[in-house]
Design goal:
Layout: E1 2-7, H1 12-22, E2 25-35, E3 40-49, H2 57-71, E4 74-77, E5 84-90, H3 95-105, E6 111-118, H4 124-129, E7 134-136, H5 144-157, E8 162-165, H6 174-179, E9 184-188, H7 200-207, E10 211-218, E11 228-235, H8 242-265, E12 269-272, E13 275-278
Parallel strand pairs: 5-6, 5-8, 6-7, 8-9
Antiparallel strand pairs: 1-3, 1-4, 2-3, 9-10, 10-11, 12-13
Helix pairs in contact: 1-2, 3-8, 7-8
Bound molecules: ligand LMY7XDAE.
Length: 280
């Protein structure tokens, strides 16, 4: 797989596809977007190296540098089926963790789970039952910097590519958000931009909405403001009390988060300033 982003200009698609064809590759998937507002160009290509190709993946990767520099590309080339290494952060709610573990076990998510990290012990049995390392990092205002440093040490030691906040209920510091820029996904239990912060289902009940939802987004220092990846909604009516909205919300949350993780793991998402470009 090859992902590319750059200032838009003629000849990028032709240059890239010609290079791959000349090196004995067959393109099986190609998506592109030319953002006329930002002047940015995005492309994702899936290709296979034909049996009679004279170049190996490593040689194709190395040979691409000259073309990429000439076209001013920001690019990455991957072994398409290499799983993305993820670390899952949880607090006390288990529904998003259980759904991710189930989809992973069923082979629906091309991920490798390096650890489950929590500020509570409630969900340790779930992780241990799956044979996944569980790391307990309780958070207080006093120990937050030290605990976040422990988290980053774990992220680096395990070569984690994506941190998933699966209803993790502590606010990450600005420094940690900067360190995890573009590689931390949170599930917010409302249809953003509505009902930010804590207790969105009670806010929804008080407002009398007819739809509730959940939003998976990249984590930024601005709470619930990160670039949106996936949203899911469900119809409700006057008969849904807050506890019923919470119960229904478990469906929208798991659906939005799992889809977002799948899109990230398949390298289908590009960050474009404070928004996303996604090739589904
Ligand atoms: N820097 C960020 N950190 C986190 C974000 C984010 O968008 N940016 N999202 C949250 C998840 N979340 C909403 O989706 C959320 C979680 C917790 C709170 C909150 O007020 N927490 C209290 C403590 C609550 C507790 O201990 O149970 C607090 O931290 O003071 C608001 C929103 C995850 N982190």
């Amino acid at each position: 797989m090859l992902t590319v982003r750059c200032e838009t200009r003629p000849g990028i698609v032709a240059g890239v596809t010609s290079y791959l064809a000349e090196h004995g590759c067959n393109i099986s998937e190609l998506s592109q977007f030319d953002d006329k507002i930002t002047g940015q160009f995005f492309m994702r290509t899936v290709f296979n190296i034909l049996p009679n190709a004279r170049a190996s993946f490593t040689q194709i990767q190395a040979g691409f540098v000259e073309l990429a520099d000439r076209l001013g590309l920001v690019w990455q080339m991957y072994e398409a089926d290499r799983p993305a290494r993820v670390l899952i952060m949880v607090s006390r709610f288990d529904h998003c963790l259980l759904d991710l573990l189930y989809r992973h076990r069923k082979g629906e998510l091309n991920i490798e789970i390096s650890a489950v990290v929590s500020n509570h012990l409630d969900l340790r049995p779930i992780a241990e039952r799956e044979g996944i390392r569980f790391v307990y990092l309780p958070i207080t205002q006093e120990n937050k910097p030290a605990q976040e440093a422990e988290l980053m040490k774990l992220v680096n030691e395990t070569d984690t590519e994506l941190v998933i906040l699966a209803r993790y209920m502590q606010i990450l510091s600005d420094q940690l958000c900067h360190q995890l820029h573009g590689r931390a996904i949170n599930i917010h239990h409302s249809f953003l931009p509505g009902f930010k912060g804590a207790k969105p289902y009670h806010q929804a009940f008080d407002r009398g909405v007819k739809l509730i939802g959940a939003t998976a987004h990249y984590v930024t220092a601005d709470l619930d403001e990160g670039p949106i990846i996936e949203q899911s909604v469900q119809p409700v009516d006057h008969a849904y009390y807050p506890e019923e909205l919470v119960a229904l919300g478990r469906d929208t949350e798991t659906m939005a988060l799992t889809r977002a993780v799948k899109l990230h793991a398949e390298r289908r998402i590009f960050l474009s300033s404070d928004k996303t470009v996604i090739f589904k």
